[in-house]
Amino acid sequence: MSKWFFDERGTLRSGWKVFGFFLLLMALGATVAFGMRALGLQRGLGVWTAAALVALASWFCVRLEGRAFTSLGLFPGWRWLLECLAGTLGGILLILITALLVRGIDGFHWERAAGIGTGQLLTPAWMLLGVALNEELLARGYPFQRLVEGAGPWVGQLVLAGVFALGHWGNPGMHGATRAWATLNIALAAILLGFCYLRTRSLALPIGVHLGWNWAQGSLLGFGVSGTTDIKGIWTPVFHGKPEWLTGGTFGLEASLPCTLVCGAAILLLWRWRGTTSVDASTASAS
Length: 287
Description:
It is a single chain. The chain has helices at residues 14-38, 47-64, 78-104, 118-139, 142-151, 153-166, 176-198, 204-220, 244-247, 257-272, 279-284, and strands at 108-112, 235-239. It is mainly alpha-helical. The protein has one domain (76-284). A two-stranded antiparallel sheet has the order 1-2. Helix 7 packs antiparallel against helix 8 (204-220). The chain is globular.
């Protein structure tokens, strides 16, 4: 019976580690939610609180294994920041290409939005940074990395891509053909972000790509971001009545065929790229 729980080295199997991580995360979330209700605070946890809980659960799990928290791919330094910045620019470029492809098939035209200043750009950026940190710690952090160690990169990629896609099913606009295309593209985006981690062994690049993609899609280009439409962009897209599977509609570009093509091309490039592993990343797991 023990072989179901421990490998030949006597180490707890990766699947149980991931299961324990999610149990711990749920317990932490329930504790914080109970505390907020007891204090009469009815608001949700918020993205930064959620990110802090994921970070805390991750820290606890890696410390149980005798590893440093930095082994997850979060280590301070200029190289990490530069990788994150490069990822942000890459995310902006990917979503811009997607938007231009949709515009090229006469899917929409842009109109300049009035009254959008620096505050309207920076406030969503801070919130979306919290979203990127939270979701990357959850989907490319401890659970993903343990599955990669225990079962191989493609098991980790496919399992977390499925979890990542299903995690967006509660978003507004998830219905009919939009749900099918959005689920496919969000899963592809998860694989893309997974390769960003696998090629660098750092969370800097996937966090940056995630941030740049969401921020540019909403704050710059004016599209919905995975179904959310409360972010006002510098530009407002005016759709020309094309099918939503071509334009993404109100859900955002993530529900469009051009997004499938762009994500597929990016995955192919990352698959062919040999990558570069930070010295900090290679030594963190040994500390």
